[in-house]
Every structure is written in structure tokens, then in C-alpha cells.
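Try it yourself: sequence plus coenzyme A, in.
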Amino acid sequence: MSQHYLAAPDRFETERFVLRSYFPGDGAILTEAVESSYDHLAPWMPWAQPSQPQALSEQLARQFRGRYLLATDFVIAVVSPGGDKLLGGTGFHLRHGGLESHTAEIGMWIRASEAGQGLGTAVLEAMLQWGFTQWPWERLVWHCNGKNIASTRTAQKAGLRLEGTLKGVRTEGEIRDTLLFGILKDEWGAQTPPA
Ligand SMILES: CC(C)(COP(=O)(O)OP(=O)(O)OC[C@H]1O[C@@H](n2cnc3c(N)ncnc32)[C@H](O)[C@@H]1OP(=O)(O)O)[C@@H](O)C(=O)NCCC(=O)NCCS
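Structure, out:
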């Protein structure tokens, strides 16, 4: 497989949700999901706004699709099995080197109406399974604000290991601790029974 380009997998299905690339036409479901989740997202996601016009969401969806095809960033939608509702967002982000690093950072948000019901943990587990079986990742990481209990617990429950803590990080107008979680493909394979 080329180290510089990836014909990325487009879709991973479970009974509860589908992980897929964003596509043109996703603007409406993206606006509905993020606007209805503003209070839930705002403390942790700097991009959250009380109002996100559909035209902006449509532009974002097209940018996400473009970068996915260019293999520069993989922003992923979490959609209902029927495809009519956006349940959240996740992604494999190249923040620690290019494709040749075989490393991606997973980010995630779950819409307010679905949060706290095990979905985030299930999505992260699916991202590990998909990432280590159909993508070229050898190492997957998850970074979170030390104050974000839900994010910390989600990483722990999905089997990621706390690798360290960056203390007193000045970012986005605050001073915080950043927790660094990670898991290697071999570690994941050792703790996951074959399908
Ligand atoms: C973090 C997030 C993705 C987790 O998804 P989720 O579907 O809510 O998570 P789950 O229901 O699988 O719960 C996972 C753990 O988090 C805990 N949790 C969930 N919401 C919580 C909350 N508001 N406060 C404290 N703990 C919470 C759950 O109790 C569970 O832990 P437990 O088994 O020890 O009780 C979701 O809450 C979210 O979108 N938060 C806002 C955006 C965000 O912070 N993203 C992560 C950035 S790193």
C-alpha cells in the first residue's frame, strides 16, 4: 500500500449505527444535529455554535468529503441505520504524522439526545475494530481535556491505555491538563476475540 495515498474505506455498519464518509447533501442532518446539541457540545468542542446555517454545514460536508478522497483527513459521520439522522461525528485525523506514520487520532462527539447511553463507547470500539482491520493504522490515539469525565471514561471503557498527561497546556483560552490515550494494533488484537 502506498505510504502517501490511501483509497480509504467508506463505510462500516453495525446494528445500531453506520460509520461513513460525509457526502454532498449532508448539510441538513449536520445542522440539525449540532444545533440541537449546542449546550452539550460547547464546553468541549470549540467549533460548536448556537446557530450553524445549513449552507455552512453543506460546505463543511463537501470539504470533509474532499479531504477524505485526497487522503489528508478522514472526518466520519455516525448515522442511524436508515441514514436519516446524524447521531454524531468521529474521524481518523492525521495529527501525528502523515499516512506513513500509520497513526491516527480519533475524535468524537455524540448528539445530546443520544449521549450517556453507551453510544460513544460503542462507536469508539467500532472505530478500533474498523481502524485496525480495514485501515492501515498501527497506532490509534485519543486526546482529551482532563476535566472531560465522559471522554476519559469512553477511552478507558473502549480499552485505550493512558500513556501520559500533558500538564498545564494553554489552549483555546484556558489552562488545562491533556490526557493522552493510545492503543497499538497488537494490543487491540490481544484483547479482542477474532470475529
Ligand atoms: C464524550 C462523548 C463522545 C461520550 O459519548 P457518550 O455516548 O456520552 O458515552 P457513553 O454513554 O458510552 O458513556 C461512556 C462513559 O462516560 C460517562 N459519561 C457519559 N456522559 C457523562 C457526563 N455528562 N458526565 C460524566 N460522565 C459521563 C458514562 O457514564 C460512561 O462511564 P461509566 O460507564 O463509568 O458510567 C459524548 O459525551 C460527547 O459528545 N461529549 C461532548 C463532546 C466531547 O467531549 N467529545 C470528546 C472530545 S475528546
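One thing you can check immediately is this: Residues 40-41, 44-45, 108-110, 115-121, 144, 148-151, 153-154, 157 surround coenzyme A (CB under 6 Å).
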